[in-house]
Design a protein that fits this description.
The chain has four helices and three strands; from the N terminus they run βααββαα. It has 98 residues and is α+β, with helices and mostly antiparallel strands. It has two domains: 44 residues, YefM-like domain (YefM-like fold, 3-Layer(aba) Sandwich); 33 residues. Strands 1-2-3 form a three-stranded mixed β-sheet. The mean pLDDT is 89. This is Antitoxin.
């Protein structure tokens, strides 16, 4: 099925929300909703969102497995942390990840 895509400002999208949800669910028609030039979101059906999450998890799992395999072959150096704080600091997460 071919998908189509529209783009609306947040005020216009708010006034058409019921229609936009129906189009996303029944017509697989995506809508980008813009609050500003830098704040945008895409309205898609729950089914498409679940598919996106599934595919993202599969990709992340494959990446982790590939890194584990590379480490097992000695191609990737592993870092060992002695504390959660040390790992968070190294990953640039600081105090926000507690």
């Amino acid at each position: 099925m071919t998908t189509t895509h529209d783009s609306l400002g947040i005020s216009e999208a708010r006034s058409q929300l019921g229609t936009l949800v129906a189009r996303a669910v029944h017509g697989r028609r995506h809508t980008t909703i813009s609050r500003s030039t830098t704040e945008r979101a895409v309205l898609i059906s729950e089914e498409e969102f679940e598919e996106y999450v599934r595919l993202k998890r599969e990709r992340e799992t494959a990446e982790v497995r590939a890194k584990m395999d590379a480490a097992a072959r000695g191609e990737l150096e592993m870092t060992t942390y002695t504390s959660r704080e040390q790992a968070y600091d190294d990953l640039g997460l600081g105090d926000t990840a507690q």
